[in-house]
């Protein structure tokens, strides 16, 4: 049955390092046809068409209008799209919803990507589409992928700090990735790690992943003094450094620490180490950052635990001004 599946008609570039094929329990997916090194570009794809509107304002008519402007060959490609049960979509708006990506927030624009939409979900993915400008979207390997391995990515955002149950409430299917297989030590640790990651983010940013303060219905930081310190940015610099490094260690243990996160986090971690003014703290922070691994950096930085710095009050004030909390 898979031999005559309509996805066999989708045009995959000749030099692409993947092929489409059936994925056990997940419909169809994309599989590496050769070893793909970490950081390698897997696919850059232009949209078949775009609609310049907010996602929830796009109508069936908008999509039909765009469809009718396509070349016959492009229409044929679009009509290859199938739902999760490999049946043709009953409504064109569902085909659009399941196969489109946001390519711009200002103005809000979504595009249809026939190939990028073929990659299945995993909560521990091996590829990522970083935010990029322009209409094309590009997918990169976040770790080395072996030939024959399925290439996956994480559909929703902020899954790195949500437990299995929280993730499954958002997904419309059961995920069977390593972090979701119940009853395994990895899965139990995964829930703990992701809960800790959420807390560490709250302590350093002063808010939850969605920019909101915690509510009594879903507490994140249970200690009210610590929660208050996070929200008014009076967490000492030593704790900020320790929390940031522990975040990196936990992300690495979880299999989620890719080069994009390292490039985003490293400057702010280095910046934190330059804030110390107390000489003994400066020495420990330098020694920590000289270690090769994130675990090594964290273990040395933990010597700073509970230590105040003469710069603490000034840094807290700067952060409060930055966030408009200062009078
Ligand atoms: Zn999963």
UniProtKB/TrEMBL annotation:
Stretches assigned to the SET domain: 16-156
PROSITE patterns assigned to the protein according to its UniProt record, in alphabetical order: SET
Cleaved signal peptide residues: none
Gene3D superfamilies xrefs: SET domain
Annotated InterPro entries: SET_dom, SET_dom_sf, SET_domain_protein
Name of the protein: SET domain-containing protein
Native source species: Mytilinidion resinicola
Taxonomic classification: Eukaryota, Fungi, Dikarya, Ascomycota, Pezizomycotina
């Amino acid at each position: 049955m898979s031999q005559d599946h309509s996805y066999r008609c989708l045009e995959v570039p000749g030099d692409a390092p993947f092929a489409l094929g059936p994925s056990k329990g997940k419909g169809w997916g994309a599989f590496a046809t050769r070893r793909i090194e970490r950081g390698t570009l897997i696919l850059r794809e232009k949209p078949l068409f775009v609609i310049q509107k907010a996602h929830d304002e796009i109508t069936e008519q908008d999509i039909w209008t765009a469809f009718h402007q396509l070349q016959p060959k492009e229409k044929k490609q679009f009509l290859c799209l199938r739902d999760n049960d490999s049946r043709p979509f009953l409504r064109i708006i569902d085909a659009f919803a399941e196969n489109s990506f946001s390519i711009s927030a200002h103005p809000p624009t979504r595009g249809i990507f026939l190939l990028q939409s073929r990659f299945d979900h995993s909560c521990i993915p091996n590829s990522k589409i970083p935010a990029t400008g322009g209409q094309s979207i590009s997918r990169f390997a976040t770790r080395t992928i072996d030939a024959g391995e399925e290439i996956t990515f994480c559909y929703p955002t902020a899954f790195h700090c949500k437990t299995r149950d929280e993730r499954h409430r958002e997904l419309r299917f059961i995920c069977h990735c390593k972090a979701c297989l119940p009853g395994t030590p990895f899965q139990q640790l995964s829930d703990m790690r992701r809960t800790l990651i959420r807390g560490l983010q709250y302590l350093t940013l002063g808010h939850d992943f969605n920019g909101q303060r915690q509510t009594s219905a879903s507490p994140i930081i249970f200690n009210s003094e610590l929660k208050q310190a996070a929200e008014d940015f009076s967490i000492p610099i030593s704790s900020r450094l320790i929390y940031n490094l522990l975040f990196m260690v936990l992300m690495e243990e979880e299999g989620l620490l890719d080069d994009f996160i390292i490039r985003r986090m490293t400057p702010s971690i280095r910046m934190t180490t330059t804030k110390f003014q107390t000489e003994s703290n400066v020495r420990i922070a330098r020694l920590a950052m000289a270690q090769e691994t994130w675990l090594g950096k964290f273990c040395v930085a933990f010597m700073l635990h509970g230590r105040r710095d003469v710069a603490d009050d000034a840094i807290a004030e700067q952060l409060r001004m930055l966030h408009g909390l200062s009078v």
